[in-house]
Every structure is written in C-alpha cells, then in structure tokens.
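For reference, the entry.
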Amino acid sequence: MRFRSPEFLHGAPDADAPDSSTLRAFALLELIANAETGPSLEDLTRASALPKPTVHRILGLLMRGGLVQREAFEKRYVVGPRVAALSLAVQMRSPRRGERRAILSRLVEEIGETCNLTMLDGREAIYLDRVETTANVRLHMKPGSRVPLHCTASGKLFLAHLAPARVRRLLGPGALKRYTERTTTSIEALERELRKIRSTGIATDIGEYLVGSVCLAVPVIGPQGRVCAAIAVHGPAPRMTLKRGYEFVPALKRAAAAISATMEVAGVPPDSVSQAAVTAASKGGIRVRARHHHGGDHRRRTEEEGQSGGSGHPVGAS
C-alpha cells in the first residue's frame, strides 16, 4: 500500500484505485505504526498532506474500531490492540517463518545451545520461534510463550531502545515484580542497565527470571532501521555461563542480520512513496509529494518544512 499522489489522497478519480477513503485510513494507520513515537494530529496532517478535518475524522473512525488509540496526556496516536494482535499474527504465520526457523536451527547447531526469536508485544516479550539444543539438560519453553520485560535479556533489549517515557508507561508505577533473588525491582537501577545495553547492543539475564538460567540477546534491525526483534541464546548454569554467552555474540549477530533480511515491510518496496511518508511522520517535519504515472513510474520528492516538536524517536517490535 502506498500514497500514490496528493491528487489521489484528496480523492481525485483513479480508475485503478480501490476506495480512496479506505486507502487514506490505511495510510494514516501505516504512518502511526511506523513512527518512532506516537505522532500528533498536526504531525499526521503534515505527513499525509490531507486536510486537518479529514485526518481528524479518519482518526476518530480508527479509534472507534480499536485500530488506533490516543494517549491521554500527550494527545499522540499509537496503534490499538486490534492492530497489535494482527501484526503479531502476521509474524507468527509469515510465509518467511520457515526461513527464520532455518536460520535459528543453523545457529543452534553452530553454538550448541537453545536460541529463540522474540518480539515486543505490549508489556511482554513473546517467543515467535524457538529451536532447542539436543543437550539432555535444557530449559523448555515453546513459541507463543510470553515473558516479562524488566528481567529477561530480550525484554531489556527492547526497553533499552524505547523512549524513556514509553519505558515508564510500560513498566507502570512502583516497584517491579520480583521473580528471583536476582530480579531488579528498582526502575532507577533498571534504567542504568538499559543505558549500558543501548551502548553495547547486548542484553543479559543471569537468573533474573528463572533460577539457574543464563541468557544473552542481540537486536534484529527492521526495515526502518529500528529494533524489531531479538535473537537470544538461553541455557542452564553451570553449562551456560555469561563468558560463554559473549563468545556466541558473533554468531548471534550473523543470525540477527540474516533474519533482518526477512523482515521487509509486507507489500511495500523500499523506494516507495509510502516509505518516504513513514520517514516524514517519524521526523515530524516532512511533507511527501508524489507524481503518479500510468506506466508505473512513481516519482517522489520530499520537502522539508522545518522540525516540529511532535514526533521523533521504535516500534516496533513492538
């Protein structure tokens, strides 16, 4: 799906186009889903080149359908629960899931420990896939399992790449839940660890969620250049140690790069006008203009109109 032209967005006739109002709604939803922080009404108006009343009306429809939510205090828009559930279902049943599993299988064969692929889903990390080691002693979990964010390697990796305000909202007020004696329950202490993870690109969990387990995770970078998933190695102590985990990092990063190549935006070519619009929304100060030609030659230009304080910083993984 793409923004074909300002004329198309404003409802000009197009013999090949589906219902324009549907495409406008989808285009706004796409902008919201791909912005690093929730865009405001002004950001979406600027990025879509639609009239502000039109944007406001479409957002109202999306909100009533549970596709979009508005944050109460900042009046910014984020994807709603129905879109999050759909996104997760798409990834769990992706035609490229077999490729990703093959990458994980080769990784497990190379390093000899269980590895998993996770994504951020609301206030938890979810296992999209997991390949077990053949070792007799191992930790059993299955795809679809959910784990907390503040005390798992993948979860902390996701938190480290979110805006601090969003991290606070996800974790909620008060002390964090304790799972073991090693669980960090102070948000301040966790934030210090997240800064380190942001710097190194590696997150660890040494018995913080499950007693006797050691885990190390690295990010998978999505098509927007943001963390969209994580690959983690997971094993029981004393066989699995943090030192051994760090020895696996080069292999983990190779696997992450390979999986990153399978995370294209479905149906959206990298050079599409829609991608430019997504960039515009995340920067909060770009308007996308395009010219549509029947021969299939799509040309675009972006016009910078000055920075707005509205958008900026993922997703998701989400």
In short: The chain has two domains: 6-85+265-304, 96-260. Strands lie at 68-70, 77-79, 114-121, 124-131, 146-148, 203-206, 213-221, 227-236, 286-291, 299-304. The chain is about 40% helix and 20% strand.
